[in-house]
Amino acid sequence: MSASASYLARRAVQKERVRILYRKALKDTLNWAVHRHLFYEDASILREKFEANKHLEDPETIDRMIAVGEATYDKWRHPDPYIVPWAPGGSKFTRNPTPPPGIEIVYDYGKEDND
Amino acid sequence: MASALRAAVLRYIRVPVAQTLALNGSKLSLFNTVRSMSAHGDDHLDKEEVIERVLDVVKCFPKVDPSKVTPDVHFQKDLGLDSLDNVEIVMALEEEFKLEIPDKEADKIDSCHLAIEYIYSHPMAG
After folding, report:
1. What molecular function terms (GO) are annotated for this protein (chain B) (predicted)?
2. Residues of A with CB below 8 A from B84's CB?
């Protein structure tokens, strides 16, 4: 019983690793592709690589394949990936932050009350 | 020479005044709406819009039957997708809303309901 439970736990970990690897690799494919139509082709090639080993059963083999995949991803990682502007490393990170609460900008444009 | 030509041309060119006025008017109305000076964080999406855009993205996914998509649908159980399709949908949602979801959190988004909740509560969703 515990053997099958540990087997299932191991399989769950492997599945998560594969999903995250696929996600990272897919994003990296988008980083390398300068045009959308190029990305679609690269993405389907990537998908085929994952689908090719879909039916593997032996946990050891799967572990090895995942390690190979992660090594390949690491090797081909883009040196200057796209980062959403506000995210750490993005071009707008910590730029023009939200003013602290209680501070308000009044749009009077020179028509203040005391004039 | 050039200045003489310029003067000659300018003497015969008439700019219709009505058009420039209309342009100014539209510019003024643009600035009259309340705009915050901060670039992010305070114009939040409303829930209806989030739901509509999430459903649009899911419906556009090639392997999905658009008639089955509802706000409560589960990607793998109800739409017959596999885990890699799930990853692709989450990435499409990230691009739609200009988000960057950490890998571990993105991995947990497996249904329209969760995606809507996550995006709606995300301060940077745009």
Report:
1. acyl binding; acyl carrier activity
2. 19, 22, 47, 50-51
Name the domain count of chain B.
Answer: 2
Contact A10, A4 (CB under 8 A): no
- B chain contacts of residue A97, beta-carbon cutoff 8 Å: 38, 41
User: How much is the ipTM here?
Assistant: 0.79
| Per-residue confidence band for B17, with pLDDT thresholds at 50, 70 and 90 | low
B98 and B66 co-located in one domain: yes
CATH classification of the domain holding B63:
1.10.1200.10
Q: What is the number of structural domains in chain A?
A: 1
B40 closest CB neighbour out of A18, A26, A86:
A86
In a 3-state reduction of DSSP, which class is residue B74? strand
User: pTM of the full predicted structure?
Assistant: 0.74
How many beta-carbon contacts under 8 Å exist across A and B? 53
- Would the CB atoms of A84 and B107 count as touching at under 8 Å? no
The most distant pair of C-alpha atoms in chain A lies apart, rounded to whole Å, by 84
